[in-house]
Design goal:
It contains 8 helices and 3 strands, in the order H-H-H-H-H-H-H-E-E-H-E. The protein has 308 residues and is mainly α. Residues 15-207 form the Cation efflux protein transmembrane domain.
Length: 308
């Protein structure tokens, strides 16, 4: 994270989300029942879901703060992805509930909505959710937290949904009451679209998807900057919650002793750990071989010469 301010934000982010979502949920529910707007009730259900998923962030922070132990030697970082998946499950249930409400209302003959309050609540929801989205996204990016990012994306979905409700509530107010049901259905579709992406990201984290694309160039550059490194033969990386684990194999000149080769590998490990804050664990192994001229290229990833 950038500084201590980011750390403070991370500790408070979930509680800010809970109180803001609670306020929106109460307002949306009140107007939904008073004005007879199922679209307002639909976004109220979303706000309640945000509260539940925010509590999952609080629990996740306590779990991921634990140090690695004999039962979990690689730490508890993947709890972040479990929390993100939990958020997806909650909102999937919400999406099904909202869809059922929308279809039921659309099939019935709705009464005309002569209340302007659903539009005002929708506008307030857009503003509130956009503020939460940008705040939580900022915290998630600096904290490298998939769980907080999942909540941020949920708030962005809520913002889009509230926009649809605002437009359709005006139509219902002008004498097209079925637009309220249409808005409810569109809300469900928007939630599903956002959650699909969040779910794929969480699944990729649980399955140890490589993050070479984000770190490969920098790691190669730093490793080749250590005297004695002829080539980086291979690199494997994956993210564990907020941190990244890396394993790379370097090639050193055959004339080096084992002690010298070990010192070079240790130099690479130390340099990477000091230069890349995201790296939680770095494993560097070495092989010796006859280095060819192409080993001078820092961008090369193919072995040069004979390896033993």
């Amino acid at each position: 994270m950038k500084d201590s301010y980011c750390s403070v934000c991370m500790q408070k982010a979930a509680w800010y989300s809970i109180w803001a979502s609670l306020l929106l949920a109460l307002l949306q529910t009140l107007v939904g029942f008073v004005a007879g707007s199922t679209a307002c009730l639909a976004i109220a259900i979303q706000s309640v879901s945000n509260i539940i998923s925010s509590f999952s962030i609080i629990i996740t922070q306590k779990v991921t703060a634990k140090e690695a132990d004999e039962h979990f030697p690689f730490g508890y970082g993947k709890a972040e992805y479990i929390a993100a998946g939990f958020t997806c499950i909650i909102f999937a249930v919400v999406t099904l509930a909202i869809t059922w409400i929308a279809v039921k209302q659309f099939m019935n003959a709705p009464a005309a909505l002569m209340d302007f309050s659903p539009f005002l609540v929708a506008v307030a929801s857009i503003i509130g959710n956009e503020i939460l989205y940008h705040y939580l996204r900022c915290v998630a990016v600096h904290a490298k937290s998939p769980a907080i990012m999942a909540n941020a994306m949920a708030n962005r979905a809520d913002s889009y949904a509230a926009g649809v409700v605002a437009v359709c509530s005006l139509g219902a107010w002008w004498g097209l009451p079925r637009l309220d049901a249409v808005a409810t259905l569109v809300v469900a579709l928007l939630i599903g679209r956002v959650l699909y992406k969040v779910f794929l990201d969480a699944l990729a984290g649980l399955l140890d998807k490589s993050v070479n694309g984000a770190y490969e160039h920098k790691i190669y550059e730093l490793a080749h900057g250590v005297p004695g490194v002829g080539l980086v033969n291979s690199l494997k990386t994956h993210r564990t919650g907020r941190k990244v684990k890396a394993e790379l194999e370097i090639l050193v000149e055959r004339s080096k002793t084992v002690q010298e080769a070990y010192a070079i590998a240790e130099g690479v490990r130390t340099k990477l750990a000091a230069s890349l804050a995201d790296l939680d664990d770095v494993v560097v192994v070495f092989k010796t071989g006859k280095l060819g001229a192409c080993c001078k290229s820092a961008g090369s990833s193919q072995p040069a010469g004979e390896m033993i």
